[in-house]
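Q: My labmate handed me this sequence with no annotations at all. I'd like to see what the chain might look like in three dimensions before we decide whether it's worth expressing. Could you predict it?
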Amino acid sequence: MKYASRVPRPPLDGLIDDLYYLEGAPPYARLTLPPPSALLIVNLGAPFRIRAGTDIQTAEYADGCVVTMPTCAWEFGYPLRTRSVGVHFKPWGLAPFLPMPAAELCDRPVTMEQIWGRPAVAELRDRLATADGPQEMLTLLEQELLRRLCEIAGLRLVRHTSSIIAATNGAVAIGDLSVAAGVSSTHLAQRFKDLIGVTPKRLARTHRFAATVFAIDPAGPIDWADLAGRAGYFDQAHFGHEFRAFTGLTPTRYVEVRRRFLREHPGHVLDSWPLPAD
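A: Here is what I predict for the chain of 278 residues:
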């Protein structure tokens, strides 16, 4: 696959981790999206499919999709060849581009048309499809985001508090954060749901799991009980429950899948992010 990415210029860099271009044949037909990740994808190829959680039916997306902070494993089904440009947002970064509170989209991926309207999305896709290479495509997407950037109430509060949660990998008392910010826990939780889609406690839980699972070295031996304890989980059963919720796999099956990916696709551009769906 071909993958290109770059960080946008200010002020977008305070909202976005990177803009990216993806093209080619996916390593597997289905991939899982691990949290924490908020996404905007403009699709330029054949439609792809998404299933958000095991209890939700798979839906097809032709023009692209918008994904707020997920609370469960998301499964992406790619066509034989895929082509898209997209945005990896910081947890709070998608809010200035949404016409509704982020909580309304929690675990409910929507099409680009539902966010920006059919005529605007069709025009953007046409300009991207005729651009002269990936870097020009990323520039066009950056310009579109700058044009649509809106002021939004509570962004500074949520950004500051979320940054602390991320810096501590979720190991912070949420009550202390609201006291330090000079707001009530109810107000903080509501601002988080409006801008991120989840409460501070839920975001902390997501960061804790992500930091733990990405620290696993699938090539070596793993002491699951020690790993769960150091991450602050009550016990191994609690850790196993979180694993299934966030990845759709048990811890041992996750390692098997990771090892298979590394063995079959060494050095793949997607190695550090999605995983095959088992």
